[in-house]
Amino acid sequence: MTVRAHPDWLGLRARHPEAAVNVFRRLAQTGGRIEISRAELLGRGNFTGAQLDALLDDLVSVDWLKRRERTLCPCCHQALSEPLPDDGLCPLCGQAFVDCGEPATETIYFRHEPSPRIVDWVLTLHGMNTLGAWQEKLNWLVARAYGRAVPVVVYKYGMVRPGVLFRFRHRHFRRQVAERLRSLSAEAESAGYRPEPDVIAHSFGTLLLAEALEADETLKVGRVILAGSILRPDFDWQRLIDREQVDAVLNHYGTADGPVGATHFLIPDSGPAGRRGFDTPGVINVEAKDFGHSTVFLDRLDAVFQGVWRPFLSANDPGALELPEIKTPDRRWTQAPWGLRAGVARFALLAILAAIALFLGGSLAFGVAPFLRWVSQALGAAGR
After folding, report:
1. Domain boundary among 317, 338, 359
2. Is 154 in the same domain as 70?
3. Three-state DSSP class for residue 14
4. The predicted structure's pLDDT at residue 297
5. Does one domain contain both 162 and 180?
6. How high is the pLDDT of residue 56?
7. Residue 225: strand pairing partners
8. What's the domain count of the chain?
9. How confident is the model at residue 361, as a pLDDT?
10. Which of 47, 92, 123, 188 could lock onto 197 through a cystine, CB 3.0 to 4.6 A?
């Protein structure tokens, strides 16, 4: 029998110890068949037997769990099928029951869920001004999480500094990402994997991924996780989902992400989605209170992966997940006036570079001192 009722996790947490409720939430996120005894549950958290019994009664009452008795061999303590054998011998260990005592009974709790979604392989994209050391740590977390080998492709496009200010550099890196994604997808399919990777992107990597998908409708990925995103909050992820280029999107944003708050004034077509969430449909916004731009990768990656990212990647229906701190912005984002957007920063940088080039060229042609005297005289004449 398949049991599909979903309990009110928040209501349960108000009536029962949070540690006990979280045990069952983790079991639910794992999916598949749940069959566990009271004794096994007691060893999973800091709560009493009475507290556990009260919670179990609640979960049975809403039909989320079923309860039944099972018989254990007194010798090997394994579960026996009913009816018990007439010869009094355990069919599992071959010992006589009378040699060890009478078979015992225990209560077990069970639930049958659809098997979780398979995470075939993962592509990670780092941010600018970094080589993405977090990608190696995430590789290790993914390798341990699923009980099987899950390839994690660590894609590094190098350090990017002034180039982020110019669209032509965006196009260059975007083409690189698209070409690499296309090549990896073909390799994955030929090796028997699903061609669409799940993608975890940070900072400038979120912009490159979104621009690559928007520019080329043939590119496809699976689930997308964004951290420290510098995309505009009005970016239309739903359009990419409708075009079947993306399966689902989770935006994990930090309320103390200062760099993301400034990107709209420096980087073309960027915005603070990694600080306040997306306004557009098709995105699960998860707020990380007081997280900065890279907090998740410093000392929180293990907890964030287990508590938020892994459930999102594994859920058959990510929209039904009850992740902590899912929040939709309470007001829509509007872009800054034209004079304050990223174009000003680009023009300022070009002016500085032009001044430096002029100085170096004049110094080489006339010598430093004569050139500086000429500049001084020119500025004085202009002032008069």
Report:
1. 338
2. no
3. helix
4. 77
5. yes
6. 94
7. 200, 250
8. 2
9. 65
10. 123
Token digits for 185?
A: 């997808």
Q: How many CB atoms lie within 10 A of CB 378?
A: 10
CA atoms within 13 A on the CB side of 44: 18
Q: Is 39 exposed, middle or buried (0-12, 13-18, 19+ CB in 10 A)?
A: exposed
Q: Which domain holds residue 24?
A: 9-112
What CATH number is given to the structural domain containing 286?
A: 3.40.50.1820
Structure tokens at 184: 């990896």
What pLDDT, on a 0 to 100 scale, did the predictor assign at position 210?
95
Residues of the chain with pLDDT under 50: 1-5, 159-160, 382
**Do 90 and 184 fall within a single domain?**
no
State residue 189 phi and psi, 5-degree precision: -65, -40
Write out pLDDT tens, residues 289-334.
888 878 877 778 888 898 899 989 988 888 878 787 888 888 888 8
Same-domain pairing of 324 and 186: yes
* Maximum distance among all Cα pairs of the chain, rounded to whole angstroms: 117
Residue 369 counted as domain residue: no
Torsion of CA 248, 254, 260, 261, to 10 degrees: 120
Residue 146 lies in a domain: yes
Calculate the dihedral angle through the C-alpha atoms of 37, 43, 44, 49, rounding to the nearest 10 degrees: 70
DSSP label at residue 99? G
pTM, rounded to two decimals: 0.66
Distances from the Cα of 243 to the Cα of 87, 121, 125, 211, 343, angstroms: 64, 22, 22, 15, 31
Query: Which of 112, 135, 160 is the endpoint of a domain?
Result: 112
User: pLDDT value at position 3?
Assistant: 36
Angle at 327 between CA 322 and CA 328, to 5 degrees: 125
SS3 178: helix
Token match 């899950």: residue? 150
In the numeric block, which tokens belong to residue 11? 């209501």
H helices present in the chain, as ranges: 9-15, 18-30, 38-42, 49-61, 134-145, 167-190, 204-215, 237-242, 258-263, 273-276, 295-298, 301-304, 310-314, 342-366, 368-383
